[in-house]
Amino acid sequence: MGWNSWNTFRCDVNAELIKNTADAIVQLGLRDLGYRYVNIDDCWQTSERDAQGHVVPDPSKFPQGMKDVADYVHKKGLFLGIYTDAGNRTCAGYPGSWGHEQLDAQDYASWGIDFVKEDWCYMETCVVEEGCPVPVPHETAYDAYRKMGEALNSTGRPVVFSLCSWGHGDAQVWGKGIGNMWRTNRDLFDVWEFGLDTNVPTYGTSIMQAVRGQAMMWKFAGPGAFNDPDMLVVGLDGMTLPEDPNIVIGKLNEDEETSHFALWCIMAAPLLVGADVRNLSDAALKILRAKEVIAIDQDPLGIQGRIIQEEDGFQIWRKPLSNNKWAFFMLNTGDHMRDITLSFHGAVPSNTFACESRSAKLRDPWQEKDIGTYRESFTAKHVPPHGHKLLVAEFLPESSTAFSQGTYKEEDVSNRAILWVCMLNFFVVIGSMAWVIYAQNSRSSSKDRYERVNEVEISAQAQ
Question: Taking the model in full, what pTM does it have?
Answer without folding.
Answer: 0.84
